[in-house]
Input
Amino acid sequence: MTNLFAERLLVICMLTNDCNQACKYCSESAGCGNAEMLPYEVVDQLLKDIYSISKESIISFIGGEATIWPGFYDILKAESFEKISLRSLYTNATAISGEHIDSIRDAGFFEVRVSLDSDRQEEHDASRGAGTFHKAVSNIGLMVENDIPVTAGTVLSKSNLNRLEGLIDYFKSLNLKMIHFFPLYMKGRGGSQKSLELSTEDREYIRRKLETNYPSCSAAREPLCESGTWYFKVLCNGDCIVQKDRDKRELGNLFEHRFSELYRKAEAMLNPAVISCKECKYYDNPILCENMHIYCMNDLNFMV
Ligand code: SF4
Ligand code: SF4
Output
């Protein structure tokens, strides 16, 4: 198989593994005493290096909970961040408040993906913690009012599978741009929720239901890069990996090496062909780019 790099470089940056929540099925086992984080200077230098490698790149901030990383609102104003052409954020939206909305809007994220699993407070709170449903929904409302492009990252399991339509109707009423569906993963604390794991039949049932009941917005992706491309991931301990699907290669640590150096190492290791994203139909809408769908099972796109 040909190794492919996307012309538009994607770097996913885990700012911290700390979290203000302790969800029962967190695949990263975030929070609960975890508090590793990248120093501000390392993130700033990473962004500068990304820009020096590619003027067309995507930075995606994830956690733990990215918005509780101490430098979060400072980096949104940094020149290094503003120079990155496309920026996205994954958040539980429960650590933000009204005073942060302007900063998040002005950061110009093309997508703010919020974890929301249910249309029912009891169900969401049972997995993610008391009060998290109301906080997340209220902050989604604030962001949508402020023209921030909010999508949902929704974990499907045996518990919400049978109420798919109700859940979708509710999410649509929140004016979300898209729902990304994920299966409950057995990784991290997810391993303790084995009884809720989706079977192959459940996944097929979901796929058919979405395609049949939501034909106009069921996003069957046909990316130009077909089998995906390698992308980069920086962990909160500084480790940098290059990854495609589940195939991961360790490159080194950003506390010891510059990202530009590790990028060249990946190039030498993989000897990739570079695919021209500009010719791809998802170029103008990276929410649908194959590289932004790591581990995602299905999508409903309400922007169509
Ligand atoms: S699933 Fe997300 S919100 Fe929940 S503990 Fe993990 S990182 Fe935090
Ligand atoms: S889906 Fe399109 S834009 Fe995304 S990496 Fe593949 S070719 Fe590039």
About this structure: The pocket of iron/sulfur cluster (ligand 1) is lined by residues 19, 21-23, 26, 28, 30-31, 63-65, 92, 115, 128 (CB under 6 Å). The radius of gyration is 19 Å.
